[in-house]
Amino acid sequence: MKDMVSVAKEKAKKHTAKAEEKAEKVTARTEVDKEIAHEKSKAKQAEANMELYREKADHRAEQRYDGIHHHHQPPVTAAGTTTYPVSGGKHHNQPTVTTT
């Protein structure tokens, strides 16, 4: 879901860059000014693309962290106390000790 939002933002930034390029080309007096407008547009589009992939990497890192984070918290009982396995906790059917 977050990737879809990032893709939409990237597309919007690219379209904005293209629109700005067209506006600059209309007001450009020389061919060099038009080339400069085109290069600026390409740079903005590349920046939007780079931002997309950075956000995607951040999303993957969040997913990975969230998956690890939740699996390592000790279980909590209804009374609000934490239970820990008596011995290493390698098997689910081992007795547990409750702490308060």
From TrEMBL:
Would you tell me the protein name for this molecule? Late embryogenesis abundant protein LEA-1 subgroup protein
Q: Where does this protein come from, organism-wise?
A: Dioscorea alata (Purple yam)
